[in-house]
Amino acid sequence: MIKIKQVTLHHIVQSLKTPFHSSSGYVQQRESILVEVLDEQGVTGWGEVVAFSTPWYTEETISTAFQLLKDLFIPLLLQHTYKHPDELEHVFSPFKRNFMAKASIQSALWDIYAQKQNQSLSAVLGGVRKEIASGVVIGLASKSEMMTQIQQYVDEGYQRFKVKISPQQDIELIEEIRKSFPDIPLMADANSAYELNDIDRLKQLDKYKLMMIEQPLAADDIIDHAKLQHQLDTPICLDESIVTCEDARKAIELGSCRVINIKPGRVGGLTASKKIHDLCEKNNIPVWCGGMIETGISRAHNIAIATLPNFTIPGDISSSSKYWEEDIVEPEITAVNGTIKVPTNPGLGYIVRKDLIEKYRLSKTVYTD
Ligand SMILES: O=C(O)CCC(=O)C1=CC=C[C@@H](O)[C@@H]1C(=O)O
Ligand SMILES: [Mg+2]
Questions:
Q1: Domains 2-118+351-368 and 123-341 share a fold
Q2: Which residues hold Mg(2+) (predicted)?
């Protein structure tokens, strides 16, 4: 049984090495809340709130998550005892959405649970891979900067390249990339920058052998995504549209996508990620793990979930050094020749560096039962 006796929220901020642009948002200073959970037997688990400072990706923010953790989710966590982290889903279920806040606690509980089983997080989740293929994201920038970055990441050995697109920069960009890199595994992420009216424009992308187009239309529009998918050869991958397992079921049933991007934070944690994974597997929909410009803590959770069998496409899990001068885990996460080794030691498998947390910390708040 797991009984939690203390939760500490570390609110930190780090500068990205280079600012990150997508069609819907921009990040330079990355705020995060690191969630340190301690059980009665002295085992510590770590989670991370991956919401951004403003609601440009989904509606949650660092402040909304902080508020709800403090007022609701931490007091609830402290009230119960747990045989398994899945039980938290039920404890939090009376409260709608706010999945990134919920996921941060649940991930920490998974970390504790794995340590108590003396197994890696990957093993307790049912992972089957010893290493995962690493992909990389190229944010919106000038065409020439994006080309330079792609070359750099090709040289580093990454196995999949995702470029951000928008109606202002799409066909010509992809055309130019394909001229220089005819065969790289390439995909485009639009972060909802298009409307169904843009169908002719999107159809023009079919000739570039993209692995998929991610989230072309609005997050709440799986009907139009289905109409679009029926007319496109290129598979659609849904990101923002899938926040629950039910969303995934409906999108699959309607034919709104042929691939799903799972981000544990977006869907409420590792338990929900596993459920969506299983549903997709049954329906022959491959999945991959997205990224949230996160620290090594959330990256470690992502690595663990990406070892499940239906994560067959390289995701957005890249080296810590892509964004950070120094990551707050040791060893840092490193893709070597486009591959990340999955840690085998109990729990997360990385040591969290409290010295660095202190260095980047804006505030620390402790809650006890
Ligand atoms: O973490 C990474 O390396 C990539 C992150 C990334 O591409 C995204 C994070 C958050 C919002 C988006 O702009 C984008 C995505 O939609 O996947
Ligand atoms: Mg996306």
A1: no
A2: 189, 214, 239
CB of 169 shorter than 6 A to ligand 1: no
Query: Model's pTM, two decimal places?
Result: 0.97
Q: Out of 102, 263, 275, 322, which one is annotated catalytic?
A: 263
Residue identifier of the C-alpha nearest atom 11 of ligand 1: 57
Q: Separation of 166 CA from ligand 1 center, angstroms?
A: 14
Instruction: Examine the residue annotation and report whether 263 is marked as an active-site residue of this protein.
Output: yes
Query: Exposure string (b/e) for 253-281, b if CB count within 10 Å is 16 or more?
Result: eeebbbbbbbbbbbbbbbbbbbbbbebbb
The atom of ligand 1 lying closest to the CA of 136 is 3
Buried b (16+ CB within 10 A) or exposed e, 64-95: bbbebbeebbbebbbeeebeebbbbeebbeee
Q: How far apart are CA 352 and CA 340, in angstroms?
A: 18
Going from N- to C-terminal start, the domains of the chain cover 2-118+351-368, 123-341
**Residue nearest atom 9 in ligand 1 by C-alpha distance:** 292
Nearest atom in ligand 1 to 215's CA: 16
The answer to whether domain 123-341 has CATH 3.20.20.120 is: yes
pLDDT for 145 equals 95
Ligand 1 pocket residue status of 57, Cβ below 6 Å: yes
Using a 6 Å cutoff on CB, does residue 137 contact ligand 1?
Answer: yes
Pick the CATH number of 2-118+351-368 from 3.30.390.10, 2.40.128.50, 1.10.540.10, 3.20.20.10: 3.30.390.10
Distance in Å, CA 314 to ligand 1 centroid: 14
Alpha-carbon distance of 10 to 221, in angstroms, equals 36
pLDDT digits (tens, 9 = 90+) for 90-103: 999 999 999 999 99
Closest alpha carbon to 112 in 354, 350, 346: 346
